[in-house]
Design a protein that fits this description.
Helices cover 49% and strands 18% of the residues. With 78 residues, the protein is α+β, with helices and mostly antiparallel strands.
Length: 78
């Protein structure tokens, strides 16, 4: 999951809730992700924020497999 915003309070709220969620882990080297660079620099909103010299806040999260879903698949492979 990608979240990118120019609103710091929103970013902090999203970070807090993703950190607290058991099925997400933060991708620490997200600045190397080509998708992040495109969203930051190539989208209309990213370009507008750059023109207006606004900060951009982002984070990338990886979904962790739910242990319950994993067990269901193991017992029901079809």
């Amino acid at each position: 999951m990608y979240h990118i915003t120019d609103v710091e309070d929103l970013h902090l709220w999203m970070e807090k809730h993703c950190n607290e969620h058991q099925l997400f882990e933060k991708v620490e080297d997200s600045e190397r992700d080509p998708c992040v660079q495109i969203i930051l620099n190539e989208t209309e909103e990213g370009k507008k924020a750059a023109r207006e010299r606004r900060s951009k806040y982002w984070a990338v999260w990886r979904r962790i497999e739910d242990p319950v879903e994993q067990r269901i698949r193991e017992f029901n492979p079809n």
